[in-house]
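The passage that follows is intended for readers who have already worked through the single-chain material. We present the inputs for a multi-component assembly, then the predicted structure in tokenized form, and finally a short commentary. You are encouraged to pause after the input and sketch how you expect the pieces to fit together before reading on.
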Amino acid sequence: MRKISRRKLLTAGLVTAAGASGLAVAAKFAERYGLIPPDAGVLYGAGETFTYAAQRLLTRHSLAREFARSQISKDPFADPVDPLGKDFHRLQEGGFADWRLVVDGMVASPASFSLAELKTFPSRSQITLIACEEGWSYIAEWTGVPLSHVLNLVGASPQARYVVYRSIQTDWWDSIDMADATHPQTFLTLGMNGAELPVAFGGPLRLRVPRQLGYKNVKYINHLTLTDNIKKFGKGLGSAAPEAGYAWYAGI
Amino acid sequence: MRLHKYSLRNRHAPVKNSQMADELRPRHSAFVRVTHWLSALAFMALLVSGTEILISHPRFYWGETGNVNTRPLFSLPIPASRASVPSGYGYVLPDENGWSRYLHFEAAWVAILAGLVYVALGLFKGHFRRNLFPALSDLSPKRFANVVAGHLRFRRPTDEEGWSYNVLQRVTYLIVIFVLFPAVILTGLALSPAVTSSFPSVVTIWGGRQSARTIHFFLSIFLVLFLLVHVLMVFLAGFRKRVGAMIVSRPAGPMERP
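Having made your guess, compare it with the prediction:
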């Protein structure tokens, strides 16, 4: 057994102390600049923070890849959802004429829009790929209103840090930070491949976040809330996904 | 202590081939040992979590897109953890993707950071030049064939040979370090919608997202094959000696039985 020298012990102690304070400073910095995802826990917090912080530093304004019309998938797959509820069926029978999108929280003027009203807003299209966390993917042309347009319209507070979006389906909600919410390709999607957005693909209204995986693209959106405190929602993990064991940030 | 440092620093100084010198000569330097075990741990985590993720869609495609409505390039004859996958089995495995994905990406960070430290220090300290780049003369087909033949006959290395890597080991380690690992990381990054928004070439060089996923799978298979052979070789060369060397830097010494 070798003896540990005093010098070695001192050096090790100093390195440990420097490392620990370095980590504390880094954590403060990350918190200050919104680089820590809301679901950062003990076990996987480091990995998730590294991923999310790296993406926010590297990809804040980058655009998701867009494709040629000829690359649109002929066989898109509609991931099955839980049986649609009574409320949904009632609205569907009325041709979704009564579907409303409520926008509230940290906005100057809370509002509620019908689909007809959303359709009068400037419409944009993108041919982008949607990939499921399971591994499969398809390309489609998505048409809708950039979320940023609606956020400007209701006067989003500069203090808002997240947009929480909810589906008409029970317990299906998620949130994105303002970098993704104001991103030009983040759409309130009304159409797919030149037609109305089919119900199986999230019609009448789906949030499209092409820089994140499929599960962030919640179907049947009827409620947006802007907030600076994501901890107030659900279990405070940022969305229903981490409550079911999945990461909040799905840009990987 | 002093002697230990001396032989590390002065790698060109003649080291006496006595028992004494052998005992004091470090077999693997500290950064090699630390990054080796960190990568080993990360690789096991990546392998387990990657397998779990794969089970949710054990079908492979080529190009940008592919899903259950698409004819696959091939699919694995295993049950799936999603009811929507036509696996041919009458049951669906439990969904383990949540923790698997958290673990996969955290372990990927450990592997990447350990890999960066290893490569940076390896270049700086001359580790690659000294221990891994094969001598040109060793690359002749005859010498190469000799070493391969020795391996196929399970010839154990002599104690002196055990201090350095032969040409087959050097070439294999270099391929694993500079081809397989970077490629498996790049094909992994190609699956990230955020990374590819900033760096589209990360995915286009593989011919699309599904191609990258398929290549990611095959690279993992190659890495598992390497791991199996690597561990087998460690066993054949003397498990205690080799593993001891990778942990505390020197072989177990007199306690080792042949």
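Commentary: Residues 57-94 of chain B form one domain. Residues 1-18, 254-258 of chain B have pLDDT under 50 and may be disordered. How closely did your sketch match?
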